[in-house]
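User: For a benchmark we're assembling, each entry needs the component sequences followed by a predicted structure for the full assembly. Here are entry 17's components. Please fill in the structure.
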Amino acid sequence: MGAATETFYEVIRRQGITRRSFIKFCSLTATSLGLGPIGSSQIANALETKPRIPVIWMHGLECTCCSESFIRSAHPLVKDAVLSMISLDYDDTIMAAAGHQADAILQETRQKYKGQYILAVEGNPPLNEDGMFCIDGGRPFVEKLKEMAEDSMAVIAWGACASWGCVQAAKPNPTQATPIDKVIKNKPIIKVPGCPPIAEVMTGVVTFVTTFGRLPELDRQGRPKMFYSQRIHDKCYRRPHFDAGQFVEEWDDDAARKGYCLYKMGCKGPTTYNACSTVRWNGGVSFPIQSGHGCIGCSEDGFWDQGSFYDRLTTINQFGIEANADKIGATAAGVVGAAIAAHAAVTTVRNLSRHKEVPNGNGKSNGNSNGASA
Amino acid sequence: MTTEIARVQGALDSAGERARSLQTVYVYEAPVRLWHWVNALLILALCVTGYFIGTPPPSVPGEASANFQMGYIRFVHFAAGQLLIVFFLMRVYWALVGNKYSRQLFLLPITNKTWWWGMLYEFKWYAFLVKDPKKYIGHNPLAHMAMFSFMVFLVLMMVSGMALYSEGQGIDSWQYRMFGFMFSIFTSQTLHTLHHLGMWAIVVFVIIHIYAAVREDILSRQSMISSMVSGERLFRDDLPD
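Assistant: Structure for entry 17:
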């Protein structure tokens, strides 16, 4: 039940590493960091005394795809992350304890590690009807979330659900599913979006926090810069085909077989920030574009509401019919063009008739209505 | 400011007639005219390349390494966009140091009742409700409003364009630091869509603008298109107002 938290040293010893090797490691690290003679003992001391960071992993409205992704991490292996690097005190889907026993761990961690534990949230709380659309342990999830967040050090928002809202927050969002940062305002929040996020990205974030004891550098949207600072498009291996102007036009055409750019097939790579095109999936085997399908932009805000996955130009439904920017624009230009043609026609007709009735020495036919004629 | 050409009346043309003396005012100074025509060309380039960025032309054959079609299209778009901004900044500078007409684009005299009356009058003129237009040295009130709105709109296009450009430059670029705030308001895809709709709004503006300029050139009491070439506003009658 996590009563006695292991230190890093204890974990290292448990894994069969000798004290001699441990001291060697500390000396080497201190030397390479240029820390001076006592640096080595300080590192050893820190590793011997610093407890592993307890992590509470909660589940709101979600599909558990984040957990499914997480347990497939290869670098580091998820067993190392869960069993060695962090102290995963609570995760109702993969923990042994259940029911009241599991619930008791939440309270225990909250009291024992006040302000020291990481709250990892998968999914989001629905706020409509006082949160009754997601009941966890007999209480609305939103209450539990606020309670646990109150005493946490920081919150990790796993996946598109916790970061942006994902499918349950797609229009019209009947349950009023709300991303974590709109509910928890007083804690640092790291967003790790994706549906699901890449396994190595998830374990990478966890490793960073546990190793350095602080949050990684975040971008404007609150995502870790190290994984979300580049677009899929900018690191895509098919990018040369985009620059050359070589596109897949149909799913079964020759260009698709040749692996041309999927831009015209609605690939959302140009508007999606994620590490898929560099880290890839399933231990670096492949990623959607490599498998011949465009990116659907699953790590972007509101990706369900950005029109079809297969159109480059977003569908705009404001007019009750299917349209996109080009159709609306061309229609508007056509209507205005027609109106102007009509206006020009009326102008011409009126002007022709006026020329006859107002002979004027001025060459031009205007000026008679002003009363005071030259 | 006011110069009177055709004051020299000694010369006779082949029909034996002399030119009459009519008022001419120097309105559009050289930097303003230059800006106008550079803008026209850049906007044309931006609309064409922008359309192709949204809907690329059919695929080019051959090796990817031998082609750079989208690269060139995007280069023209980005280069034209940044030139547009540079020229716009120069135009803003000229509004500060140029003549009084150079400031018209950026200021609306909304407290001036005569101006509002003039706007109504221009509406009537375009609705065929009045027989004759008024004379204006600078923009007529309706055109003034249209131009002011277009400038505001153009700024929005520049800001959204720079924000989209900053995505390619990376989030550590100065472009992203300056314009990345747009992505706190819109998602990237939405901003692309809005920027694209903006292109069509510019097309609509261009249609109206050219029509109005040609129509006014024929029907109004002052010169229009040639004024944007020579800078001089010629009046076609000596009648008051």
